[in-house]
Fold this protein.
Amino acid sequence: MSILVSQLSKNYGDAKAVDNISFEVHSGEILGFLGPNGAGKTTTMRMITCFLTPTAGSVQVEGLDIRTHSLEVRRLVGYLPEQNPLYLDMNVVEYLSYAAELQGVLKHRVSLRLREMVEVCGLGEMKHKDIGQLSKGYRQRVGLAAALIHDPRVLILDEPTSGLDPNQIVEIRSLIQNIGKEKTVVLSTHILPEVQATCDRVVIINRGKIVADSPIAELQHSMQGGEKVLLEVDTPAGSRFEAIALQLRVIPAVENVSLLAELDGRKSLSIETTGADIRKDLFRLCVEKGWTLIELHREKTSLEDIFRQLTSDQTK
Amino acid sequence: MSFSNVRTIFSKELRSFFNSPVAYIVIVVFLVILGWFFTSNLFIANISSLRTVFEMTPFLLLFFAPAITMRLISEEKKTGTLELLITKPVRESEIIVGKFLAAWALYVFTLLPTLCYYVIVSMIGHLELGPVVGGYLGLLLVGGVFLAVSIVGSALTENQVVAFIVSFLIVFGLFMLDKVLIYLPVSLATVFEYISVDYHFSNIARGVIDSRDIIYYGSAITFLLMLGTAILQKRRWS
């Protein structure tokens, strides 16, 4: 077990930012930490990285408690904070060697690690420029390089792709995936495709509480309960929606039928099912009744839907 | 406390002092004002002494110390780099001491050119060495206290202007304490006199290096740096 969070809480005054959450991150795993803005992602990460002290509960990183072994934990962890703060008046090499020295990288290894990080993060041409002159994408790479400089076993990234353009996002993601092959990575985001693209497992947090914790594939599976099928058919003029709906309900798995649009005899229907695949039955029914099938497709519950389901019922 | 962390932070801060124009401006202004007082007094009073240097410097330090120190921590708070620093295996005390020593080194660097006054005066007249050594030692210690106060001021806020004003008010208070003694009852006056920075300075500047004065400065600086450390630690619990 790489990170073990148990019954962790953090209060700011009366407000509970993080409310009694528990989860674990296995070694070598990329965990997506997902939630709407203000859900408590950053606060949780700040506790894991020893920036904030929990109000209650405990965190263990590689078996070390953040309260009793704070310095040792900080030595094991590489951290990229939200907004990626950097010293804009330093140049890239200066900054990276500063970070390396503070992380306790041995003197004779500093220049080696520096060269490696410049290469891994693609900073070759920029290494003698002031950080203030770099574009956002390059700054993000500098931040990542600094977080990785001491070859940490655990990497905590708080919204590593926020504010980047689509090309940069793809680059940073593939960089994270490469890094994640050897390390334990926790990355927070409110962008869902990011989780699908990079993570093995997802923890969804809302209003300080964990609302889901499972591998991505499993999460999609478990939430599939209300599948939808869209059906567009040409029916003989004059046939009414109610009559068609009645005939559709003969199929056992159909739960509800609603009319989306109607033009002359052509009808668009949305059919909610219990989860079984009813497309074959629908096709046979159409043939039997003499309806011309225009369109038939199943809508899979996307991660976005799951996210909305899990987080919307509790927000206001 | 790890010496290598202190040294890393110290050299980073010292380098960034010399990368920014603010340090140069402050140093030049400091030296110009001090130089003007020194030369005009030298010829008017016609006395071979460095008294003006030792009398004017603490006064100039009231502005100098907060000015060079104000951004040291407040700016890191504002830009968020403090989060980077605190999540590294570095103790708060190492951050405070490293930054304090960098500011102190800049101050020493600023004082170095004033040694030419010593050369000039000893060329044109007889200059006793004792008060000069004492005077410079005193200046270093007074500067240390003022800079330590300003570090605390900078740790209190993320706004540099607020940091400057808070630090200025405190060092001004410490500076003025022994100038209001005549308005105070005797019992209070002795306490105030002991706390006053200037009282101890004038002892040392006479060339009398008394352990009581050294202990005063040492403990004041230590206390202030511990206070700064505590302020940084407190924000973990916020």
The CA atoms of residues 177 and 196 of chain B lie 5 Å apart. The two ends of chain B are 24 Å apart (CA to CA). Chain B touches chain A through 24 residues (CB under 8 Å).
